[in-house]
Design goal:
The chain is built from eight helices and nine strands. By secondary structure, it is of the alpha+beta class. The strands form two sheets. The chain has a five-stranded mixed beta sheet with strand order 2-9-8-4-6.
Length: 289
Amino acid sequence: MAGAPWIEDTSLDTLMSTEPVARGQLVDPETLVDDASAQAGTQQDASLQDRTRVQQPDEEGARADAESDQQARSAESILSGLQQRYTTGEAASHAFVDADGVERDMARSLLACTASGVVDGGRTGDCADTAGGWVDGLVDGVKPEPGSSVLLVTGEQAMIPVRVDNATDRTARVRLRVESPTPQLSTELSEIVTLGPGDARSVDVPVRGLANADVRSTVTLLTVDGDALPQRTELLVRVRADWENTATIAIGSVLVVVLVVGLVATIRRGRRKIPENQLAAAMARAQDG
């Protein structure tokens, strides 16, 4: 017992009178150390595997995430384009008699490209191109056609004819105005003109030249209320003073008179006459011969 100090010396009677106490199994301490080391190693291996799985994600998952991000960016770009098309089409729709109907049809056509069936089927791009082309046809369908240059006299009001074309299947009602970037040209609004589907007409726009200039003006399409629409074209207006035209006419008239007088004088002179004695001598020689 002296070699085992951890064992308490007690009598059998004392042990029999004590209450039973649960005790653990007797295990070799070296075995406990080996088991603990093995368990720690297993946990370390599991932790390493977890870190490896975190640091090296599945390639298919990464590829799927990249494709999803690309689709999201593509969809965002397409939606932005549809919004821009609608904004432009909404402004141009006021050229038509049924502006609300045109705007409603454009909205339906563009919103159809955001339907889940179109998006899931990967047909958003084709749908956007088709709907955008239809909207562009309405926007550019009613517009003034380019014309040749116009000559105006200073101080006089004149009418500049501008051809307006309606290439849509809707009825349009518009006005025109020639806008000048300089004060040499004063302009007014034209009368309201109604164009049926596929119709074209010449519209007279009132203008007045105020000073000499070559004015590169802009013919703008307007709504009935006078609001500017996106459709427009350029027109060169040459403004000249009245005295310049008068001087040009006077100079031209003088040149014509001088030309006529010269011709008359030439005709009156005709050929030079032969003297009578020379004529008699020639007749005598002819008779002798």
